[in-house]
Design brief:
The chain has a domain at 38-57 and 317-406 and 408-428: 7 Propeller (Methylamine Dehydrogenase, Chain H), CATH 2.130.10. It is built from 2 helices and 33 strands. Helices cover 5% and strands 39% of the residues. By secondary structure, it is mainly beta.
Length: 429
């Protein structure tokens, strides 16, 4: 064995050990859903550079990977074709993948509880595996829409399963919001299935609380937790025309504010200092900043700090150094001042790749090492500086993968994890 071979072996061994330790990314968009990584990650990659491994997935999906220790968890679906009314063979897959080398540690195949919505219309924009799992208390929790909540230990043993409804709203757009965890309560939005939010006991799935409201129709965002000045914690969720602040331990509404973001609301809320930033709406896009100026009841009219129509339909923005960054679903890299709402830049990205149809961006923005990362469906991933002026650093494509990239990236220990309909990638220097 020559010196170069020995050096290469030692380097890869050290890299694999480092990837099995440290930074966890345990829910949709990482810590409290804000999309901020602790460490820098690579800024450029392709088939010949910085792809440590890739793992073939059993089917497509829009969920994001989550990471705990040396394990990566992700979901996919199979058994149904686009445009089909027949969902009898629909199966969802829950995978645990070794973070060091990309091998599958375990997989659970979950047959769909029927009837399911037909695979057509807007449902084809994201599919049947859109809810990102959450890891908490050394357990994995996965929401699979009409097929319910599934709890596993980290070795893949099914602990419990609970159904939260099998209904559909009139549009039949499918389930989207991801579960979150707070103070030993598993919080799940089953807005599509039962027009309700649930608080569940993570040990057995028993219901601790349920909050049902017709206003939850077309509320597809994943909620987040906000800490108030009084060190109180609120469960924050945008719904069509309103922003809600709820008690995460009881599900009861504490405060609400009226917004002009109507129609479906898909982007998750972004939390600033006593302020919540909301994007979305349909058919008219809006964004706004709301100051949480009351702890109970309706917020004042002055709570609306600013609003604008330069927004995004599905992608969630990221807040960095007082600025909001996002990739609009129309294909622009955008930045706005969080205090005033003023647009600082709006630059066209070359995001339409081979076979593109519909909106070029679905995944939300994330930040690591002062860089913004946005992944388009078919046109590659873009990296630009988290600054007032737009500076494109890199445009990265994996040309051998012609499938779509719907999922928001995850980050851990200097690596960024991307999911396409075909593969999960670990990108690390």
């Amino acid at each position: 064995m020559n010196k170069f071979t020995v050096f290469t072996f030692l380097f890869l061994t050290i890299k694999m050990i480092s990837l099995s330790m440290g930074e966890n990314w345990m829910r949709f968009r990482g810590t409290n859903g804000q999309g901020i990584g602790e460490n820098s990650v690579p800024i450029d990659w392709d088939e010949k550079k910085n792809i440590l491994w890739r793992c073939r997935l059993p089917g497509p999906g829009s969920s994001s990977p989550v990471i705990f220790g040396n394990r990566v968890f992700i979901t996919s679906f199979s058994g149904v074709k686009e445009g089909s009314q027949d969902t009898s063979k629909l199966v969802r897959h829950v995978l645990c993948i070794d973070k060091k080398n990309g091998t599958v540690i375990w997989k659970d195949d979950v047959d769909a509880i029927l009837p399911e919505d037909p695979y057509r219309g807007f449902l084809t924009e994201h599919g049947y595996a859109s809810n990102t799992p959450v890891v908490a208390s050394n357990k994995l929790f996965v929401y699979l829409g009409k097929s319910g909540v599934h709890s596993y230990n980290l070795d893949g043993k099914k602990l419990w399963q609970k159904n939260l409804g099998t209904g559909s709203t009139s549009r039949k757009w499918g389930s989207a919001a991801s579960p979150i965890f707070f103070n030993n309560i598993l919080i799940v939005s089953a807005a599509e299935e039962s027009l309700a939010l649930y608080g569940l006991d993570p040990e057995n799935g028993e219901q601790k609380w349920k909050s049902q409201a017709d206003s939850l129709e077309m509320a597809y965002a994943t909620p987040v937790i906000m800490k108030s000045k009084e060190s109180r914690f609120d469960l924050v969720l945008p719904v069509p025309g309103e922003l809600w602040g709820m008690n995460p331990e009881t599900g009861k509404l504490r405060w609400f504010g009226k917004t002009n973001i109507t129609g479906n609301v898909s982007p998750s809320p972004v939390i600033g200092k006593d302020t919540v930033y909301i994007f979305g709406g349909y058919p008219s896009l809006r964004r706004c900043a709301m100051k949480i100026d009351k702890q109970k009841g309706e917020l004042s009219e002055e709570a609306m700090i600013w609003e604008d129509n330069q927004s995004s339909y599905v992608p969630t923005p990221v807040l960095v150094d007082g600025r909001l960054y996002w990739a609009s679903d129309t294909g622009y890299a955008c930045c706005a001042d969080a205090l005033s709402g003023e647009m600082l830049f709006r630059e066209r990205l070359d995001a339409r790749g081979k076979g593109s149809k519909g909106k070029p961006f679905y995944a939300g923005a994330v930040c690591a090492g002062g860089k913004i990362y946005v992944v388009s469906r078919r046109g590659g991933a873009f990296v630009f500086n988290a600054d007032k002026k737009f500076e494109l650093i890199s445009h990265n494509k994996i040309l051998s993968d012609d499938s779509q990239f719907h999922g928001t990236p995850a980050m851990s220990d200097g690596a960024i994890f991307l999911r396409s309909d075909n593969y999960l990638y670990c990108i690390s220097e």
